[in-house]
Amino acid sequence: MATVSRLSAPGPAASASPTLKPRSSQSKILIGFYGGSNFNAKVSSSRLAVRNNPAIGGPLVVRCSQVDGNGVPVKRTVLHDLYEKEGQSPWYDNLCRPITDLLPLIASGVRGVTSNPAIFQKAISSSDAYNDQFSWSLNSRVAKIKLLEYARELVQSGKDIEAAYWELVVKDIQDACKLFEPIYEQTDGADGYVSVEVSPRLADDTKGTVEAAKWLHKVVDRPNVYIKIPATAACVPSIKDVISLGISVNVTLIFSLSRYEAVIDAYLDGLEASGLNDLSRVTSVASFFVSRVDTLIDKKLEKIANTEALDLRGKAAVAQAALAYQLYQKKFSGPRWEALVKKGAKKQRLLWASTSVKNPAYPDTLYVAPLIGPDTVSTMPDQALQAFVDHGAVARTIDSNVSVAEGIYSALEKLGIDWNDVGTQLEAEGVDSFKKAFDSLLNTLQEKGNSLKFVSL
């Protein structure tokens, strides 16, 4: 396994609510992309257009074409309204090559990206783009030769597979940061972030996590990168230390109110310990996971199996999230917070993660529509994003039924649901899932690396 000290910067070659709506049968918004010559050309000269494609029977199709100034203005979506009317930033929970596939999403109102080891495992293992580098967009023999030469260099120079993995990841993050940089600049550093996670193997390593965060921050070298750190007991102190160094952090894998409060305290402690007179460029989000909570608690309720328990299925996650927002409002107010505001500090925004619906019996916007509120982020994978753009309603919902949320939370406790135990189990499962995805990807890369030794040009 590579250690942080051995990793080097990539070289040029690597450079159930009344507000919810049932599933709709109307036409979906499909997002597509026309490839161009290279990454920089795509970024500088792409023109986004929205066209009705009669061959598809009328659904709106977003395309990205290389037309100089002749593109049709992109139609507004509910994602624009989500941000402009309710102050919630819609982010995309996915990343793969070609990175320029993000351009139509940005035009449709997406304002940031989150990634994790499982996302990269899927992207790199299933995509030819990481074998042929730019050949997906170029489709040329020259690009393939360059990639194979570079891959051989990695293998022959003795770089281990984990180092090679980070080179691939860092390039993707850097390229995505470039696309979102205009949003970052327009919002004075409040939005437009791309998140990259430290190795999941460090989830129980306080010091190792700090060193890994420092290294990632240095090699990515983009102002709008978030370093993702898991909210494990061992890594909560890491959050404080990393924030104190002036590094912006996305705290991930938060499943309980108690752990969430510890994360907020770590952020505040870090700001206070930084010694910085200007805290305006140190920002953070706290990724509070949603759907996985219902998945676990629903199973517990089905084992209890009485009417009260069964009636509470599909309600636990949104209820806890609503209470998390109440905690957010409480913690980011009062004398302590006001003292930090005088130095330019920004609130650590709540980010709703795990927003895809796992149970097909539930509305497909269940983990988006009831969690709309100011100073929050909702990161959505394809399923949730498409569903909300198609038939989501924009309205402030996060604190519209706080008393109902409190009642659900208490009712679950009376049934024997221990919220802290739920959080602990989900955290362990989340870490284990990311570790397995990470290890699986490294094995895949090892196999690809070995095969490249025998490729003949």
From TrEMBL:
<dbReference type="InterPro" id="IPR001585">
    <property type="entry name" value="TAL/FSA"/>
</dbReference>
<keyword id="KW-0808">Transferase</keyword>
<dbReference type="GO" id="GO:0004801">
    <property type="term" value="F:transaldolase activity"/>
</dbReference>
<keyword id="KW-0570">Pentose shunt</keyword>
<keyword id="KW-0704">Schiff base</keyword>
<protein>
    <submittedName>
        <fullName>Transaldolase 2</fullName>
    </submittedName>
</protein>
<feature type="region of interest" description="Disordered">
    <location>
        <begin position="1"/>
        <end position="21"/>
    </location>
</feature>
<keyword id="KW-0963">Cytoplasm</keyword>
<comment type="similarity">
    <text>Belongs to the transaldolase family. Type 2 subfamily.</text>
</comment>
<dbReference type="Pfam" id="PF00923">
    <property type="entry name" value="TAL_FSA"/>
</dbReference>
<dbReference type="InterPro" id="IPR013785">
    <property type="entry name" value="Aldolase_TIM"/>
</dbReference>
<dbReference type="InterPro" id="IPR004732">
    <property type="entry name" value="Transaldolase_2"/>
</dbReference>
<dbReference type="InterPro" id="IPR018225">
    <property type="entry name" value="Transaldolase_AS"/>
</dbReference>
<comment type="function">
    <text>Transaldolase is important for the balance of metabolites in the pentose-phosphate pathway.</text>
</comment>
<dbReference type="GO" id="GO:0006098">
    <property type="term" value="P:pentose-phosphate shunt"/>
</dbReference>
<comment type="pathway">
    <text>Carbohydrate degradation; pentose phosphate pathway.</text>
</comment>
<feature type="compositionally biased region" description="Low complexity">
    <location>
        <begin position="8"/>
        <end position="18"/>
    </location>
</feature>
<dbReference type="GO" id="GO:0005737">
    <property type="term" value="C:cytoplasm"/>
</dbReference>
<dbReference type="GO" id="GO:0005975">
    <property type="term" value="P:carbohydrate metabolic process"/>
</dbReference>
